[in-house]
């Protein structure tokens, strides 16, 4: 399973929503997209975290397997975006890279924001979000 940034964030911040996902992920590799890593590296910069808090975040992120970009991912993203443009529903760039990573590696995307990925052809989504999210 590929974890969306919001899921990784829930675990890091010990958000109560993490409990919705924890038991389903026990024993599973926790994959994240390279883009998710970038989004999380941005937090300390935007929020002026001190050195210890930055180190804590970086240590925490070592528990995830980061899926890097490669030519196949770039082509998957290009196809996803071209298809979305034809349908008139272009996803947010960050979400498009996360979706492309899931598609490229044939992983189910675990997200609490399934609407962000609505209409991405072939994407398997798993969520515990209340209906309507």
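-> sequence recovered:
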């Amino acid at each position: 399973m590929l974890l969306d940034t919001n899921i990784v964030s829930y675990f890091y911040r010990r958000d109560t929503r993490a409990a919705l996902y924890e038991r389903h992920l026990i024993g599973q590799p926790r994959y994240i997209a390279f883009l998710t890593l970038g989004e999380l590296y941005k937090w300390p910069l935007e929020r002026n975290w001190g050195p210890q808090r930055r180190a804590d975040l970086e240590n925490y992120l070592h528990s995830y397997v980061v899926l890097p970009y490669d030519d196949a991912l770039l082509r998957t993203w290009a196809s996803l975006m071209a298809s979305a443009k034809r349908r008139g529903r272009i996803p947010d760039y960050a979400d498009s890279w996360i979706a492309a990573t899931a598609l490229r590696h044939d992983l189910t995307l675990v997200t609490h924001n399934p609407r962000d990925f609505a209409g991405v052809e072939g994407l398997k989504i798993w969520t515990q979000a209340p209906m309507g999210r």
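The chain has a mean pLDDT of 94.
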